[in-house]
Amino acid sequence: TIRTEGLRRHPTHAVEVKWKDHTVTIGGGRPVVVQSMTNTSTADTEKTVEQVLALARAGSELVRLTVNTPEAARAVVEIREKLDRAGCFVPLVGDFHYNGHKLLTEVPECAAALSKYRINPGNVGKGDRAAENFAVMIETAKRYGAAVRIGVNGGSLDQELLARMMDENNARPEPADPSEVLLEALVESALSSAKGAEALGLPANRIVLSCKVSTVPELLRLYRMLAKRSSYALHLGLTEAGIGSKGIVASSTALGVLLEEGIGDTIRVSLTPAPGAARTEEVVVAQEILQSLGLRSFLPTVTSCPGCGRTSSEFFQELAASTQSFLRERMPEWRTAYPGAAGMKVAVMGCVVNGPGESRQADIGISLPGAGESPVAPVYIRGVKVASLKGSDMAERFQAMIEEFVRTTYAQ
Ligand code: SF4
């Protein structure tokens, strides 16, 4: 069930990011959009296409690519064509730093193939060149109908702006803490750049803002300030969140708090992938954050107990994990034919103490026998016991029952 009541959303402009007939809307009260970024060299078209397809299949609704060289800019055109041929119309976002004005001008086909440009105001050039280069990128976005994200980052803040604001602060009778001035400078950089883009003729409903730092308390303060001072659609993300559980917990904490306050229209979870981990992990985490807040529904929910001394074997953990993987693998196909399956509740429980109770409350649930209990696992569908499974093929038989339940319950 997607929460629609009791949820305040910070009002923002609706920004349409389009590719052909496919439109993803960020802001304006629309469902929070999940996005991610490739980590391949964009010039390597084959690997990049492969990764974009994997990210899109995992549920990334926008995919960002680094566009840092003329080769990468030319590759974007080829990548877009290959994705189209594969039937994947996920809008692509170009990430530009330092030379975006040149690349977008020298490779106009790249400017046309991208649905959104990310511009970092701290990395567009120095002095007068900064304003000129910024204007070139905004004019290009206007020409090709692209949306723009003004993406300010704590690690690449406009140093001239920061120095000016620090000087102004020092001249005050009671100067603020320098860390506070830094946050204000980040917000100021984002808002003044957005106003600059509007002055150049790019409407507010084509502008998304982000202001990323790598610590949770500062990120919360930054986005509260941004939300208070503007109605631009907001892209949330904790930059350089880190590796493994550290990155997941920090991102979930920061994004969860802001989303619950109604702040944020699109999210990206920036994880340093653990060696061997799939790049799609960040999409899964982003979806889990939105689903646990009840903001969107991507995947059936699996209720499983932690297990304890009553659990008879590791089979319980294996069954919980294989059920979760099965649902994640099947959902892309179900999404078309049985979209209601995303709201399904599945229970996998470890013994008779809470097992039958939780399983009865799920749409479909299984309660494994604990140590010393009869070696039979009752399966419940919407509160009614429908089968008792036992034997080594229990996982396959439970999955077959889930498949059958989805086909008979959620067909459109
Ligand atoms: Fe332990 Fe049973 Fe509770 Fe699971 S349901 S945590 S196995 S007592």
Q: Count of DSSP E strands?
A: 15
Number of helices: 13
> Biggest sheet: strands, sense, closure?
8 strands, parallel, barrel
**What are the secondary-structure elements, in order, as H or E?**
EEEHEHEHHEHEHHEHEHEHEHEHEEEH
Low-confidence stretches: none
| Strand line-up across the major sheet | 3-4-5-6-7-8-9-10
- Radius of gyration from CA coordinates: 24 Å
Bin the strand percentage.
15-25%
Domain IspG TIM-barrel: 23-286
EC number: 1.17.7.3
Catalytic activity: (2E)-4-hydroxy-3-methylbut-2-enyl diphosphate + oxidized [flavodoxin] + H2O + 2 H(+) = 2-C-methyl-D-erythritol 2,4-cyclic diphosphate + reduced [flavodoxin]
Domain IspG C-terminal: 302-404
Describe the structure.
- The chain is an alpha/beta fold and 412 residues long.
- 45% of the residues lie in helices and 17% in strands.
- The protein has 13 helices and 15 strands.
- It has an eight-stranded parallel β-barrel with strand order 3-4-5-6-7-8-9-10, surrounded by six helices.
- Helix 12 links the parallel strand 12 and strand 13.
- Helix 7 crosses helix 8, helix 9 runs parallel beside helix 10 and helix 11 packs parallel to helix 13.
- It is elongated.
- The structure holds iron/sulfur cluster (SF4).
Strand and helix map with partners:
Blueprint: E1 15-19, E2 22-26, E3 33-37, H1 45-58, E4 62-66, H2 70-85, E5 92-96, H3 100-106, H4 108-113, E6 116-119, H5 127-144, E7 147-153, H6 159-170, H7 178-199, E8 207-212, H8 216-229, E9 233-236, H9 244-260, E10 266-267, H10 281-292, E11 301-304, H11 315-337, E12 345-349, H12 355-361, E13 364-367, E14 377-381, E15 384-389, H13 394-409
Parallel strand pairs: 3-4, 3-10, 4-5, 5-6, 6-7, 7-8, 8-9, 9-10, 11-12, 12-13
Antiparallel strand pairs: 1-2, 13-14, 14-15
Helix pairs in contact: 1-2, 3-5, 6-7, 7-8, 8-9, 9-10, 11-13
The site of iron/sulfur cluster (SF4) has 13 residues, from loops.
